[in-house]
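pls design
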């Protein structure tokens, strides 16, 4: 990673936005490398939530008094920020949900439940997070659909020709992650969408890992559904987005019933609200939506293309450094890869490794990363995963390397 690139990114200004990073862990300055699990929050996000609760809090879509009107404006303003961030055609296509998990379950239980029948097929890849596997298994129990797996190669990549061979008229949905949380692989979504569409199947993209690292343009991808989580992209927990094409949402039944999602209710018949409110039952996470919009503004201000270039250089540097460590094996070496390095060290269990690294102030995750089929593919019980954010730099990678070496010295 060149210093020029760090300067270009105003690195010290960005880092100063994250007060949580200015603390010590076990006597060492904290190095936070678990961004795949959740990212830290910049001051602009923290302050937007603080201001909301101090000065702007009221329920939305119901009060005629000023405070409620302003809260509604902020909430709907956040929806417009999200629409623009994803380049959706309309705010009707932007549904606020709890996160990626809820977005996928919504699609499974609303769109898929009424549009799929016995023997219809959902294809998922072998690198999916459990959030993009289990909802389809639940649907399999409910409808008797088939769940087919697109296998990955030893680098952790999907093969487009294999997908071409797999799809058929029976395929109704391809559910695929944009970027793998366990391997870092970035999938060729546009090409995969074309293949799925050629047989009339819809495509759901799990964008949980992609949105903090690269520009996403849902119209360009032409995906039918796109799911994301605020907390992985410098926003709050408990808020996320389901993007879906308007015609699909229009035809889908509500996912949950309650206040806000109705137009009128009698005991005989209920008329549902217009989009996107039909899918937002109950008081929403207003502060969360406002915080998420602040996070999107933060990403836009830096520029996602610059972030992607910066993190690509960081990944190259980290890969080179880690490859020099004897006995260390990187799991997942896709050509097109984001800022995630999963690894194992011969003779050391990943949990022991991560526990000792914490003693050095380095926070990494050791687990199956909620992607157990990926672990099975590579025949490992777990990996240690370092996942980068926009506030990480070469010094953090150097500390990562030292922590691994020290753990090795202790355990081997
Ligand atoms: N999809 C992917 C690709 C993910 O990485 C995650 C969370 C989810 C879905 C679920 O997101 P949620 O916000 O609804 O929980 N991944 C991780 C991880 O890698 N470590 O902790 C959570």
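designed seq:
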């Amino acid at each position: 990673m060149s210093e020029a690139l760090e300067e270009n990114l105003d690195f010290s200004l960005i880092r100063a936005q994250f007060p949580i990073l200015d603390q010590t862990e076990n006597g060492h300055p904290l190095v936070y490398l678990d961004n795949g699990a959740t990212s830290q929050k910049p001051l602009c996000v923290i302050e937007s939530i603080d201001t909301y609760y101090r000065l702007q809090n009221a329920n939305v879509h119901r009060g005629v008094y000023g405070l409620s009107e302003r809260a509604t404006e902020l909430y709907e303003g956040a929806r417009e920020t999200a629409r623009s961030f994803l380049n959706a055609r309309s705010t009707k296509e932007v549904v606020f949900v709890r996160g990626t998990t809820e977005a996928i379950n919504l699609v499974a239980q609303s769109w898929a439940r009424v549009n799929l029948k016995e023997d219809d097929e959902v294809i998922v890849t072998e690198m999916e997070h459990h959030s993009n596997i289990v909802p389809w298994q639940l649907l399999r129990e409910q409808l008797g659909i088939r769940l087919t797996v697109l296998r990955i190669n030893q680098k952790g990549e999907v093969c487009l020709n294999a997908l071409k061979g797999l799809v058929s008229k029976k395929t109704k949905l391809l559910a695929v992650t944009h970027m793998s949380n366990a391997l870092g692989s970035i999938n060729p979504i546009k090409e995969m969408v074309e293949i799925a569409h050629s047989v009339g199947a819809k495509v759901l993209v799990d964008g949980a890992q992609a949105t903090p690292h690269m520009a996403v343009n849902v119209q360009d991808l032409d995906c039918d559904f796109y799911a994301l989580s605020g907390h992985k992209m410098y926003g709050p927990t408990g808020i996320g987005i389901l993007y879906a094409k308007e015609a699909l949402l229009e035809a889908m039944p509500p996912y949950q019933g309650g206040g806000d999602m109705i137009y009128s209710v009698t005991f005989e018949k209920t008329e549902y609200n217009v989009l996107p409110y039909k899918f937002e039952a109950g008081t929403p996470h207003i502060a969360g939506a406002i915080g998420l919009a602040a996070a999107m503004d933060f990403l836009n201000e830096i520029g996602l293309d610059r972030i992607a270039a910066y993190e690509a250089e960081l990944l190259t540097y980290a890969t080179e450094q880690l490859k020099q460590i004897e006995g260390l094996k990187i799991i997942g070496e896709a050509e097109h890869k984001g800022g995630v390095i999963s690894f194992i060290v011969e003779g050391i269990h990943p949990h022991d490794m991560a526990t000792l690294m914490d003693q050095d102030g380095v926070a990494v995750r050791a687990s199956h990363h909620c992607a157990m089929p990926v672990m099975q593919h590579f025949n490992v019980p777990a990996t240690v995963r370092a996942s980068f954010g926009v506030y990480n730099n070469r010094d953090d990678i150097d500390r990562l390397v030292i922590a691994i070496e020290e753990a090795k010295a202790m355990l081997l």
